[in-house]
Amino acid sequence: MPVSKERTLILVKPDGVRRGLVGEVISRVERKGYVVTALRMLNADRATLEKHYEEHQGKPFFEPLVEFMMSGPIVAMIAEGERVIEGFRSLAGVTDPTVAAPGSIRGDLARDQGTKVVQNIVHGSDSVASAEREIAIFFGK
Ligand code: IDP
Ligand code: MG
């Protein structure tokens, strides 16, 4: 039986927008075969980001993460396709860009900048429950 289609939330973080990598990220998502079904650029406020990253509250990088995410515009998008959550996490590469696989977005385009928070170009939801929760934050129900 085919796996049913799913959705994920992708964010191009402020470092990605500043470096002109929005098109590169969208292009990789589309070339993989996923469909972008919603897209917006915004300046996220603290309340939105604290909700989005609520699982990380209390961690040492939480405040630097929120500050970083408020440091410039971000691009939020919904991508759709079978197993897109897992597929985009694979396109993005692991959290630490120093060791993210070459060929991945983080592995090809980011590195350690010596900052308190890792700047790694993109966010991608990590489960169906997170995807639906995060899509509601950035796009409403
Ligand atoms: P993910 O983005 O790969 O899912 P998460 O663990 O959900 O990684 O962390 C959210 C974001 O917080 C990361 O993308 C990165 O920007 C930052 N981050 C995560 N872990 C650390 C850390 O140990 N030090 C600094 N920043 C971190
Ligand atoms: Mg995460």
Description:
With 141 residues, the chain is of the alpha+beta class. It has one domain: 2-Layer Sandwich (Alpha-Beta Plaits). It is 40% helix and 20% strand. The chain is built from 7 helices and 4 strands, in the order βααβααβααβα. A 4-stranded antiparallel beta sheet has the order 2-3-1-4, sandwiched between helices. The radius of gyration is 14 Å and the shape is globular. The model has no long low-confidence stretch (mean pLDDT 97). Bound molecules: inosine-5'-diphosphate (IDP) and magnesium ion (MG). Inosine-5'-diphosphate binds next to loops.
Write the layout of secondary structure elements.
Layout: E1 5-12, H1 14-18, H2 22-32, E2 35-42, H3 46-52, H4 62-69, E3 74-82, H5 84-92, H6 105-109, E4 122-124, H7 128-139
Antiparallel strand pairs: 1-3, 1-4, 2-3
Residues 61, 65, 95, 117-118, 120, 123, 126 line the site of inosine-5'-diphosphate.
